[in-house]
């Protein structure tokens, strides 16, 4: 039994149809073998992005700005006032959201501020999600 499959950019160099087939095959394999599949994808088309169960989005420096179900990512960022425009590839939108344009000092400063705010928002989200419920008598060591 395979515990985990790790695929580093398995769709790189493929046309959109073959890329979709590869991701679909990996999803089928995960389901049939009940194993985790972890892949890094570079600019997946929206139909491929929609196949992903969970998404880890990292900012420069490797800081997490989202980790969770792919179906939740749009609403998470919309709640932070970063709504993906209609008819826009969500993967492209997300990459742009965490990218820093260094072509001018002004653009760089603006992008760095946005990325830092996304990092803080995720840290706050994690703290509130992982914090024990108010009044809970069970601590992590007692569970």
TrEMBL record:
Topological type in the membrane: Multi-pass membrane protein
Region feature Disordered, mapped onto this chain: 120-143
Keyword annotations of the record: Membrane, Transmembrane, Transmembrane helix, Transport
Localization: Membrane
GO cellular component terms attached to this protein's record: membrane
Domain ABC transporter family G: 42-106
GO molecular function, one term: ABC-type transporter activity
Pfam families linked: ABC2_membrane_7
Primary location group: membrane
Protein name: ABC transporter family G domain-containing protein
């Amino acid at each position: 039994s395979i515990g985990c499959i790790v695929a580093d950019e398995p769709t790189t160099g493929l046309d959109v149809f073959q890329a979709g087939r590869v991701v679909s095959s990996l999803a089928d394999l995960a389901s049939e073998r009940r194993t985790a599949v972890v892949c890094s994808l570079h600019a997946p088309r929206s139909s491929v992005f929609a196949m992903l169960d969970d998404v880890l989005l990292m900012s420069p420096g490797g800081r997490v700005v989202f980790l969770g179900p792919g179906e939740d990512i749009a609403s998470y960022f919309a709640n932070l006032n970063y709504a993906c425009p209609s008819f826009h590839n969500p993967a492209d939108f997300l990459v742009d959201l965490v990218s820093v344009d260094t072509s001018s000092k002004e653009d760089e400063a603006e992008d760095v501020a946005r990325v830092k705010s996304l990092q803080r928002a995720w840290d706050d989200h994690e703290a509130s999600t992982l914090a024990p419920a108010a009044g809970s008598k069970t601590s992590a060591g007692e569970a």
